[in-house]
Amino acid sequence: MSRVILVVDDDRSTRASALRLLTARGYSAFAATSETDAVRQAAQLTPDVILMDLHLHQGSGLDAARHIKAQPALEHIPIVALTATPPTWDEKMQLFAAVLTKPCPTAQILDAIETVLRP
Prior knowledge:
Blueprint: E1 4-8, H1 12-24, E2 28-32, H2 35-45, E3 49-53, H3 61-69, E4 79-83, E5 98-101, H4 106-117
């Protein structure tokens, strides 16, 4: 059974590229476009990894991560953050298994995902 990855990004092109990349690597990839959609789909899919844009037009990736991590059935899911703005490392960033700055090479995205999937 392939690993499930939820891609959360409101940019159609970025989302489509990520879905193509992950599907080509054998992952089952699903998409969400907003904070609410991300939380809902995380609960439905219980993905192995979430690739989360932090700046969404409808809500916040940071708030979505907080809602996901607050649910006992989902708190174990690693979230890899993607952001165009380099983050400051404070207690909020502890929600994420990795933080990648856009634009991000595909090899770096795959490496982050593979790293968090290792037992």
